[in-house]
Structure formats: C-alpha cells, structure tokens
Amino acid sequence: MTREEKGAIIEELSEKFKTVPYFYITDASGMSVAEVNKLRRMCFDQGIEYRVIKNTLIRKALETLDTDYTSFDGTVLAGFSGVMFHAESGKVPAKLIKQYRKEAGNDKLKLKGASVDYSLFIGHDQLETLLTLKTKNELIGDVIALLQSPAKNVISGLQSGGNKLAGILKTLSEREAA
User: Fold this and answer.
1) Total number of domains in the chain
2) Cα–Cα distance measured from residue 35 to residue 129, given in angstroms and rounded to the nearest whole number
3) 144 with 61, same domain?
4) Which of 5, 27, 74, 162 is the most buried (most CB within 10 A)?
5) What is the mean pLDDT of each successive set of 10 residues along the chain, which is 178 residues long?
6) 151 and 112: one domain?
7) Are residue 55 and residue 85 in the same domain, yes or no?
8) 0.85 exceeded by the pTM?
9) Are residues 126 and 160 in the same domain?
C-alpha cells in the first residue's frame, strides 16, 4: 500500500469517525472465511458498515479528532481489528455481536472497544453495559412521560371529582323528588 493510499484511507476514516457517533472495534481473529462472511451478511442486513482496517490507520484517523482516544492504544488497537459503524444507534452493533455469538455457538467475535456518543467503552465485559444503554429517542420518551405524569394525575383527579359531584347531586335530586 502506497503512502497516498494510506493517506486517503486515513482521511476517509477520520471523516467517518467525525460523522458517525457510534462505532465498535471488534476482534474477529480465528474466524473462518464462512464465519466472517456470515458476520458481514448480518452487518449488512442490520445497516452496519463493517470494515477490517489496520490498527495504525485507525490510530492515525482517531488522532485527527477532538475526542481523546488514547485509551484505545495498546489494548483496543492491537491484533486483528474490524470496525463496525452505525449512524443511528449505539445498541445495534452490540445486539449484533451478542446475536452472532449465540448463533455461531462460539465466542470468536469479541468487543475490543466502542465509542457511543463519544463515550468510550473498553473490553468485552462492556457489551452488557452497551446493550442496556438507552438511545436518545428512548431518553426523550422517558422525559416526556415523566413530564406528562403529573398533568395526567391532576386531570384524572378533576374528572373523578366531577363525576362524584354529579353522582351526589343526582342522588340528592332523586331523594328530593321521592
């Protein structure tokens, strides 16, 4: 690979890291060609871009960003590295990794590190944490539900009070008529 080709890859990766807030770095070493093809097919079906890239190129692309990714050096950016990009959710790649490991019946695919909204997660043990993270839309929905809850309580209280009052007046008027 020539210096110009490496520069173009670093430029492209740098732009990708800037525009996509969710990316996972995985270790798929020891996987057969058929297993890698299955992984790529699953990624494609779920809208995840999966690329195998040299660690030095990933490192140089990350160095161009404002976020500090130095904690990825050594542990994350060592050995075989595949990068999963997903533009809409930080959970989708985590779900895919878990699903792949379950379907394949082996643990060859491992999470080395992830960046979700520029928060860093290092190590395969962080996979469960990533699976439980709420998306931005889920958090907005929770906030809206919390804000609506007191108003709904007041409205239901007023409605039930009005119904009780109407029932009492009806009963009194029936007694008076009798």
Assistant:
1) 2
2) 25
3) no
4) 27
5) 87 89 88 90 92 90 85 84 87 90 86 86 88 80 80 68 70 77
6) no
7) yes
8) no
9) no
